[in-house]
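agent: user wants the structure for Glutamine--fructose-6-phosphate aminotransferase [isomerizing] from Microcosmobacter mediterraneus. delegating to structure tool.
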Amino acid sequence: MCGIVGYIGHREAYPIIMKGLQRLEYRGYDSAGIALFDGNNIKLSKTKGKVVDLEDRVAKEINTEGSLGIGHTRWATHGVPNDVNSHPHYSNSGNLVIIHNGIIENYESLKKELTKRGYTFKSDTDTEVLINLIEDVKKNENTKLGKAVQIALNQVVGAYAIAVFDKNKPNEIVVARLGSPLAIGIGEDEFFIASDASPFIEYTKNAIYLEDEEMAIVRRNKGVKIRKIKDDSLVDPYIQELQINLEQIEKGGFDHFMLKEIYEQPSAIQDTFRGRMLPKDAIIKMAGVEDNMKTFLNADRIIVVACGTSWHAGLVSEYIFENLARIPVEVEYASEFRYRNPVITDKDVVIAISQSGETADTLAAIKLAKSKGAFVFGVCNVVGSSIARETDAGAYTHAGPEIGVASTKAFTTQITVLTLIALRLARAKGTITSTEFRHHMIELELIPEKVKKALESDDYVRSIAEIYKDASNFLYLGRGYNFPVALEGALKLKEISYIHAEGYPAAEMKHGPIALIDENMPIVVIATRKGHYDKVVSNIEEIKSRSGKIIGIVTEGDTTVKKLADHVIEVPESLELLSPLLTTIPLQLLSYHIAVMLDKNVDQPRNLAKSVTVE
Ligand code: G6P
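agent: tool returned. relaying tokens verbatim.
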């Protein structure tokens, strides 16, 4: 769960690496470091803190000349975030230097062995063990760096994306991956290495994504040679043309990525259904679904596995699949599913949802399901990600890069993809009529414009945030399709403002949370006209009689809730099934504004990371 960057070519490596690290800070930001090579010396600087802190440190410590270098932004797994534990790490001789994203699980036994052989360790990290293991192999076997890396990695249990270079081999960087992503950008006589393509997108659109258990030797002026780590066989490099551009990954005039991403939702949702849905012709086309239609139609049930916000999208999809396609659905936290010996058969379809496509628990759940014979379908945002590759088939959300740690557009685009799948299956099964099918598509097509309308409440939501920003607890209530939205609203607030918030099914409130309600408790209630409206209104009455402060999320033109609530935020009318795509917007904005007012780091909240590649 760290970001790694490397460069070898004809330009100065320093600015490329620093800019790249900034773009990768979403992967971790508790410490950062860089190692540059100028043909004679390795110059290494690292610090606890963010990439801006590293810039200050570098200015004091090293000169930045050099056309080869590697950099790292860290999210601690072994060893607390401090200067010493930051990457890069030297080997004992000072000749080799490494950056690493992942975890070496057997590092303790390796460390013991190496200690016996006289190696010493400055840090508490597993990474320093790995670089000394590589050094030990290199010395004992009298081999080149690439071979030493390969032999060492065959002794390692765990996950890694690494980049290593040797002071005595100044024209190459050796990289490898298992379980953590690694892309190589191919320029004109220059090469870029990174956890994703964002650090090099302005230099080249050509990239190789290493597969698990592959390593590559990247040589100045020569090219990239890829081998399998296990058996040393050569792999033909597959160079992909990248579809993203720089503008997509920068803030585009917004103060924060999160706000930019909230505002991108109309176009992101449109991109998600673009080309897949033709309401006029009553067609939904998704290759991954069409190619496996039989499997979907014969499935006894669908099991959704996911984490965090993606799990909430999964919960929404449970309501949608069951209602439209009449297929039983279970929604599982990937981390629970993988460890509880679940009953899975080859009649199950597992849908794995993940923005990053790298979440370790989700990936492990997929592997488990596959080993039991289930067909696994992925819903991912990041193209070429590990989950996208591990699944039997899938559908991308096409939301574009999501940088803010708190997920927003990923959520709404996941729901959009899942709705398309449910509609397609429903039509194939005949559980909805062709008129209903077309009607749903027409309504879905209107959603981007309606999201735009919902975003117009921004100023009003900010004024509500001003009133409640100092509350210590929030309650979020919803029913049916909007129960998961209540969970997601509470999660957004917790994540970025550090205010305690709970999401609850509105009716279930009576069985506990009602005890918390007093005049200091803001309660966000999703009360759209079509969603069990009367029942929710009764719940609002119950809150009112206990003096709770009510923020209602209502359908345009609502009058009933308006009379009861302290504030109402309107969203456009839509099908009940599509309402989560609208009701979630004001909740995202509310959490955003509260976090900004409390001066929190919105895009990089404490203790969290965008892509959780450890279990
Ligand atoms: C982390 C992120 C969340 C995300 C979750 C699952 O906790 O901070 O925003 O929902 O991981 O990530 P995924 O990439 O699998 O959707």
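agent: one observation worth passing along. Residues 307-310, 354-356, 359, 362, 405, 407, 608, 610-612 surround 6-O-phosphono-alpha-D-glucopyranose (CB under 6 Å).
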